[in-house]
Design brief:
Largest sheet: 6 strands, antiparallel
Number of strands: 34
Shape: globular
Structural class: mainly beta
Oligomer: single chain
Number of helices: 0
């Protein structure tokens, strides 16, 4: 195991030296067949661009699916994972592409065994569970192509009360301009209270999903993209882009469109504008993370110089201080999670390659980061969830051999792979 220190520098001013503009890949998925929408995409609008094959660890024993069936994926089509959600080191869920819509895989024992639930005609991009039984999924149905865009005609929210074995539809709406690959999200607070990003809007429920209503942030046009929700049910922060010039498909700020953070201290009854710089042109949200109602961090990426900037607060977001910068492109910073006031993690995605991804770790509150890699195994990490400064899961993208999950018990020094068997 070799730990490489990423090139960081302390903040020395708000201005950025202008360079040639580089656009990031718009999404995470490569050549994928979506049965629910009948599309096949490689690169481009919302799809992950072609990347060199990343080295994969020794293939683990394949867990069995329900009913003893193998559920094997069609020959030549590698496994594609769209999201994962773990509530503990042992219990978690991941969403995979299936033959006829998406498939939900769940493990109660840290990936030793998996069980499958089919989600026919539903293209799922987000899953989240409040506990071992209650969870929600956001999915899309229908399909059409319009001016080169891959779009779906309906958004849907479904709920499970038995850990994901069965699902019941709770909410759906027809849409016209939602990209098939828009990144939906689920933020469970309790078995009764949850927030979701569906398409380009946020919805909330306080009665277990019997009623879902759109969140009004009272700041004008706003596209929510990231969120941090405290388990007290009162404090939450949503990060997105605000302004009449914001375009959902572009995923970055620009003219009349600014990176923005709003927060609530009363469970979403009222929202307040917390942070929005005067100029955030060509900046993209990376992630936001809070460890309690007072202490949190967020990260943004400049597409002009491919530097990611980390900000921190100790007063719930009333004031934010820039802590450091790190290289944010090639590989790309894909998210952010802190587990204590000193330790935090950033998944690094290979993007278009040929540079491999991995894991960036800080143990000093974000002042410096180290990139942990294993010789010959520079993976593309797309998502992570840590429970301590040592134990956590990552979702790994591999366009050739198929996606998979990995678990570490020592802060990313060693990894144990787990692949749901399709």
């Amino acid at each position: 195991m070799v730990a490489h220190r990423l090139r960081n520098r302390r903040y020395a001013g708000e201005g950025y030296r202008r360079k040639r503009l580089l656009r990031l890949p718009a999404g995470r998925d490569g050549s994928v067949r979506f049965a629910a929408c009948g599309l096949r995409l490689r690169g481009g609008d919302g799809g992950k661009p072609d990347v060199p094959a990343a080295s994969q660890p020794e293939t683990p024993s394949a867990p069995r699916g329900e009913g003893g069936g193998s559920g094997a994926a069609p020959s030549g089509e590698p496994l594609k994972l769209a999201d994962m959600y773990f509530i503990s080191e042992k219990q978690g869920w991941t969403v995979a592409e299936g033959k006829q819509g998406s498939e939900l895989w769940r493990t109660p024992d840290g990936g030793a065994t998996w069980k499958k639930s089919a989600l026919p005609d539903l293209n799922v991009r987000a899953v989240g569970f409040a506990d071992e039984s209650v969870g929600w999924i956001v999915g899309k149905t229908g399909r059409r192509e319009e001016q080169g865009q891959r779009l779906c005609s309906q958004l849907r929210i479904v709920r499970s009360d038995d850990g994901g074995a069965k699902w019941t539809a709770q909410w759906q709406t027809k849409v016209q301009n939602v990209n098939l690959y828009s990144e939906d999200r689920v933020f469970p607070v309790s078995s009764q209270k949850a927030f979701v990003i569906a398409g380009y809007q946020m919805l909330e429920t306080s009665d277990g999903g019997k009623q879902w209503k759109a969140v009004n942030f009272h700041i004008g046009p706003f596209i929510p993209e990231q969120g941090a929700f405290d388990q007290d049910g009162k404090h939450a922060w949503v990060m997105g882009r605000a302004g009449k010039g914001c375009k959902p498909e572009e995923q970055q700020a620009g003219e009349q469109c600014a990176i923005t953070i709003v927060n609530t201290t009363d469970g979403g009854a009222h929202w307040n504008l917390q942070w929005s710089p005067q100029d955030s042109s060509n900046m993209r949200n990376v992630g936001i993370s809070f460890i309690n109602p007072k202490q949190g961090w967020f990260m943004v990426l400049s597409l002009e110089n491919l530097q990611s900037s980390l900000y921190a607060t100790r007063d719930g977001g009333a004031t934010w201080t820039k802590v450091s910068e790190m290289r944010g492109g090639r590989p790309y910073t894909r998210g952010l999670q802190f587990v204590s006031e000193t330790t935090g993690f950033v998944p690094l995605s290979a993007g278009a390659g040929p540079i491999g991804g991995g894991l960036a770790v800080t143990h000093d509150g974000g002042k410096t980061f180290e990139r942990k890699i294993q010789e010959g195994q520079e993976w593309s990490f797309e998502q992570l969830k840590f429970f301590t400064d040592k134990a956590g899961w990552v979702r790994v993208y591999d366009p050739t051999k198929g996606d998979y999950l990995m678990f570490t018990a020592d802060g990313g020094n060693t990894w144990k792979p787990s692949t749901p068997h399709l």
